[in-house]
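W.,

You were right to be curious about this one. When I first looked at the sequence I had no strong expectations either way, so I just let the prediction run and decided to look at it fresh. Below is the sequence, 243 residues in total, followed by the output.
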Amino acid sequence: MKQIAVFLMAAVTVLSAQALSPEDIITRMEDNQVHDNARAEGRMLTTDKFGTIERTFISYSRGSDESLIEFTSIEEAGQKILRTENEIYLYFPDAEELIRLQGAALRDSVMDSDFSYEDMTGEGGILDDYKVFLEEDETVDGHLCYVIRMEAKRRSVPYQLQRIWVDKELFAYRRAHRYSKAGTLLKEMQITRIETINGKHIPMDFIMSDKMKKDSQTVFTLDSLELGIRLDDSLFSVDELTW
Protein backbone atom coordinates (compact mmCIF):
# COMPACT_ATOMS: atom_id res chain seq x y z
CA MET A 1 0.00 0.00 0.00
CA LYS A 2 2.84 2.34 0.85
CA GLN A 3 4.37 1.83 -2.62
CA ILE A 4 1.02 2.57 -4.25
CA ALA A 5 0.67 5.77 -2.22
CA VAL A 6 4.15 6.92 -3.23
CA PHE A 7 3.39 6.16 -6.87
CA LEU A 8 0.12 8.10 -6.72
CA MET A 9 1.82 11.11 -5.12
CA ALA A 10 4.48 11.08 -7.84
CA ALA A 11 1.81 10.84 -10.53
CA VAL A 12 -0.09 13.78 -9.05
CA THR A 13 3.12 15.83 -8.97
CA VAL A 14 3.82 15.10 -12.66
CA LEU A 15 0.26 15.91 -13.68
CA SER A 16 0.36 19.15 -11.70
CA ALA A 17 3.55 20.19 -13.48
CA GLN A 18 2.03 19.35 -16.86
CA ALA A 19 -1.10 21.32 -16.01
CA LEU A 20 0.70 24.62 -15.48
CA SER A 21 -0.86 27.37 -17.56
CA PRO A 22 1.33 29.99 -19.29
CA GLU A 23 0.08 32.48 -16.68
CA ASP A 24 1.27 30.15 -13.89
CA ILE A 25 4.71 29.86 -15.50
CA ILE A 26 5.06 33.63 -15.89
CA THR A 27 4.00 34.18 -12.28
CA ARG A 28 6.59 31.71 -11.00
CA MET A 29 9.29 33.21 -13.24
CA GLU A 30 8.54 36.74 -12.06
CA ASP A 31 8.78 35.54 -8.46
CA ASN A 32 12.44 34.82 -9.23
CA GLN A 33 13.27 38.11 -10.90
CA VAL A 34 11.11 40.66 -9.06
CA HIS A 35 12.27 41.59 -5.56
CA ASP A 36 10.90 43.80 -2.80
CA ASN A 37 14.27 45.56 -2.52
CA ALA A 38 17.54 44.82 -4.31
CA ARG A 39 20.96 46.38 -4.85
CA ALA A 40 23.38 45.19 -7.53
CA GLU A 41 26.76 46.10 -8.97
CA GLY A 42 27.67 45.12 -12.48
CA ARG A 43 29.26 45.72 -15.86
CA MET A 44 28.04 46.29 -19.40
CA LEU A 45 30.49 45.25 -22.12
CA THR A 46 29.54 46.39 -25.64
CA THR A 47 31.34 45.07 -28.71
CA ASP A 48 30.75 46.38 -32.23
CA LYS A 49 32.76 47.17 -35.37
CA PHE A 50 34.54 49.98 -33.52
CA GLY A 51 35.82 47.79 -30.68
CA THR A 52 34.79 47.02 -27.09
CA ILE A 53 33.76 49.42 -24.31
CA GLU A 54 33.11 48.49 -20.67
CA ARG A 55 30.85 50.51 -18.43
CA THR A 56 30.16 49.84 -14.74
CA PHE A 57 27.06 50.63 -12.70
CA ILE A 58 25.19 50.31 -9.43
CA SER A 59 21.48 49.54 -9.59
CA TYR A 60 18.62 49.57 -7.10
CA SER A 61 15.14 48.14 -7.58
CA ARG A 62 11.88 47.80 -5.68
CA GLY A 63 9.18 45.54 -7.04
CA SER A 64 8.50 45.51 -10.78
CA ASP A 65 7.90 49.23 -11.27
CA GLU A 66 10.80 51.09 -9.64
CA SER A 67 14.48 50.98 -10.51
CA LEU A 68 17.51 53.26 -10.54
CA ILE A 69 20.75 52.68 -12.44
CA GLU A 70 23.75 54.92 -11.75
CA PHE A 71 26.83 54.55 -13.93
CA THR A 72 30.17 54.54 -12.11
CA SER A 73 32.69 54.17 -14.96
CA ILE A 74 34.89 57.26 -15.39
CA GLU A 75 33.39 58.74 -18.56
CA GLU A 76 29.79 58.06 -17.54
CA ALA A 77 30.08 58.67 -13.77
CA GLY A 78 26.90 60.12 -12.29
CA GLN A 79 24.64 59.45 -15.27
CA LYS A 80 21.40 57.92 -14.03
CA ILE A 81 18.34 56.13 -15.40
CA LEU A 82 15.26 56.18 -13.17
CA ARG A 83 12.14 54.14 -13.76
CA THR A 84 9.01 54.92 -11.80
CA GLU A 85 5.65 53.24 -12.22
CA ASN A 86 4.79 55.13 -15.39
CA GLU A 87 7.90 57.04 -16.50
CA ILE A 88 11.60 56.76 -17.33
CA TYR A 89 13.95 59.69 -16.62
CA LEU A 90 17.59 60.33 -17.57
CA TYR A 91 19.99 62.56 -15.68
CA PHE A 92 23.26 63.89 -17.12
CA PRO A 93 25.41 65.55 -14.42
CA ASP A 94 27.71 67.48 -16.78
CA ALA A 95 24.77 69.32 -18.29
CA GLU A 96 22.70 69.20 -15.08
CA GLU A 97 19.91 68.05 -17.38
CA LEU A 98 16.89 65.89 -16.52
CA ILE A 99 15.04 64.26 -19.42
CA ARG A 100 11.74 62.37 -19.36
CA LEU A 101 11.64 59.71 -22.05
CA GLN A 102 8.45 59.19 -24.03
CA GLY A 103 7.19 57.11 -26.92
CA ALA A 104 9.78 55.89 -29.39
CA ALA A 105 12.62 57.33 -27.27
CA LEU A 106 12.14 54.43 -24.84
CA ARG A 107 13.53 52.17 -27.55
CA ASP A 108 16.71 54.23 -28.01
CA SER A 109 20.04 52.57 -27.29
CA VAL A 110 21.65 53.08 -23.89
CA MET A 111 25.14 54.45 -24.62
CA ASP A 112 25.31 52.70 -28.02
CA SER A 113 24.77 49.31 -26.38
CA ASP A 114 22.33 46.63 -27.58
CA PHE A 115 20.02 47.45 -24.66
CA SER A 116 17.27 50.05 -24.94
CA TYR A 117 16.15 52.09 -21.95
CA GLU A 118 13.17 49.77 -21.57
CA ASP A 119 15.47 46.74 -21.69
CA MET A 120 17.78 48.17 -19.03
CA THR A 121 15.15 49.18 -16.52
CA GLY A 122 12.99 46.08 -16.87
CA GLU A 123 9.37 45.57 -17.76
CA GLY A 124 6.37 45.98 -15.55
CA GLY A 125 4.17 42.99 -14.82
CA ILE A 126 4.21 40.81 -17.95
CA LEU A 127 0.60 39.68 -17.54
CA ASP A 128 -0.53 43.32 -17.39
CA ASP A 129 1.00 43.97 -20.80
CA TYR A 130 0.75 40.67 -22.66
CA LYS A 131 -1.55 37.82 -23.54
CA VAL A 132 0.49 34.62 -23.15
CA PHE A 133 0.33 31.30 -24.99
CA LEU A 134 2.20 28.05 -24.35
CA GLU A 135 4.07 26.47 -27.27
CA GLU A 136 5.99 23.18 -27.50
CA ASP A 137 8.87 22.65 -25.07
CA GLU A 138 12.41 23.19 -26.38
CA THR A 139 15.91 22.66 -25.01
CA VAL A 140 18.30 25.58 -24.52
CA ASP A 141 21.94 24.77 -23.69
CA GLY A 142 20.89 21.38 -22.35
CA HIS A 143 18.03 22.74 -20.21
CA LEU A 144 14.42 21.78 -21.00
CA CYS A 145 12.31 24.93 -21.26
CA TYR A 146 8.74 26.06 -21.55
CA VAL A 147 8.31 28.24 -24.64
CA ILE A 148 5.83 31.08 -24.20
CA ARG A 149 4.55 33.39 -26.92
CA MET A 150 3.60 36.86 -25.68
CA GLU A 151 1.31 39.20 -27.64
CA ALA A 152 0.97 42.81 -26.52
CA LYS A 153 -2.42 43.93 -25.25
CA ARG A 154 -1.93 47.53 -26.45
CA ARG A 155 0.20 49.56 -28.85
CA SER A 156 2.20 51.35 -26.15
CA VAL A 157 4.01 48.14 -25.15
CA PRO A 158 7.61 48.42 -26.51
CA TYR A 159 7.69 44.94 -28.09
CA GLN A 160 4.46 43.85 -29.71
CA LEU A 161 5.52 40.21 -29.80
CA GLN A 162 7.96 38.16 -27.72
CA ARG A 163 8.91 34.53 -27.25
CA ILE A 164 10.63 33.48 -24.05
CA TRP A 165 12.23 30.22 -22.98
CA VAL A 166 11.71 29.48 -19.27
CA ASP A 167 13.74 26.77 -17.52
CA LYS A 168 11.25 24.05 -16.46
CA GLU A 169 13.18 23.28 -13.29
CA LEU A 170 14.29 26.74 -12.14
CA PHE A 171 11.52 28.93 -13.63
CA ALA A 172 14.11 31.43 -14.86
CA TYR A 173 14.76 32.93 -18.30
CA ARG A 174 17.10 31.03 -20.62
CA ARG A 175 16.41 32.96 -23.83
CA ALA A 176 14.16 35.73 -25.14
CA HIS A 177 13.30 36.88 -28.67
CA ARG A 178 11.71 40.27 -29.21
CA TYR A 179 9.88 41.03 -32.45
CA SER A 180 8.22 43.87 -34.31
CA LYS A 181 4.48 43.72 -34.89
CA ALA A 182 5.21 42.35 -38.38
CA GLY A 183 7.21 39.49 -36.88
CA THR A 184 10.74 40.74 -37.61
CA LEU A 185 13.23 39.58 -34.97
CA LEU A 186 14.59 42.74 -33.35
CA LYS A 187 16.60 41.41 -30.41
CA GLU A 188 17.82 38.16 -28.97
CA MET A 189 18.79 37.74 -25.33
CA GLN A 190 20.70 34.73 -24.01
CA ILE A 191 21.15 34.05 -20.29
CA THR A 192 24.50 32.36 -19.66
CA ARG A 193 24.63 32.26 -15.85
CA ILE A 194 21.91 31.71 -13.25
CA GLU A 195 22.62 31.83 -9.51
CA THR A 196 20.48 30.86 -6.52
CA ILE A 197 20.29 33.68 -3.97
CA ASN A 198 17.97 33.55 -0.95
CA GLY A 199 16.14 30.65 -2.59
CA LYS A 200 15.53 32.52 -5.86
CA HIS A 201 17.03 31.46 -9.20
CA ILE A 202 18.27 34.69 -10.74
CA PRO A 203 19.82 35.37 -14.18
CA MET A 204 23.20 37.05 -13.61
CA ASP A 205 24.83 37.13 -17.07
CA PHE A 206 22.99 38.22 -20.23
CA ILE A 207 24.07 38.55 -23.84
CA MET A 208 21.89 40.94 -25.85
CA SER A 209 22.14 41.13 -29.64
CA ASP A 210 20.37 43.87 -31.57
CA LYS A 211 19.49 42.25 -34.89
CA MET A 212 19.15 45.68 -36.51
CA LYS A 213 22.89 46.27 -35.91
CA LYS A 214 25.68 44.40 -37.66
CA ASP A 215 28.30 42.58 -35.57
CA SER A 216 27.10 44.02 -32.27
CA GLN A 217 26.40 42.49 -28.88
CA THR A 218 26.36 43.58 -25.25
CA VAL A 219 27.25 41.39 -22.29
CA PHE A 220 25.45 42.45 -19.12
CA THR A 221 26.93 41.01 -15.91
CA LEU A 222 25.82 41.31 -12.30
CA ASP A 223 28.92 40.92 -10.11
CA SER A 224 27.00 41.18 -6.85
CA LEU A 225 23.36 41.19 -5.80
CA GLU A 226 21.81 41.86 -2.40
CA LEU A 227 18.15 41.07 -1.76
CA GLY A 228 15.78 42.15 0.98
CA ILE A 229 17.88 45.13 2.01
CA ARG A 230 16.52 48.44 3.25
CA LEU A 231 16.31 51.17 0.60
CA ASP A 232 15.44 54.81 1.17
CA ASP A 233 12.29 55.96 -0.65
CA SER A 234 14.22 58.94 -2.02
CA LEU A 235 16.23 56.65 -4.31
CA PHE A 236 13.23 56.42 -6.63
CA SER A 237 12.24 60.09 -6.43
CA VAL A 238 12.58 62.44 -9.39
CA ASP A 239 13.21 65.29 -6.96
CA GLU A 240 16.29 63.50 -5.60
CA LEU A 241 17.61 62.29 -8.95
CA THR A 242 19.86 65.28 -9.57
CA TRP A 243 21.77 64.90 -6.28
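Here's what jumped out at me. Residues 2-18 form the longest helix (17 residues). And, maybe more interesting for your project: Confidence is low (pLDDT under 50) at residues 1-17.

Coffee later to discuss?

I.
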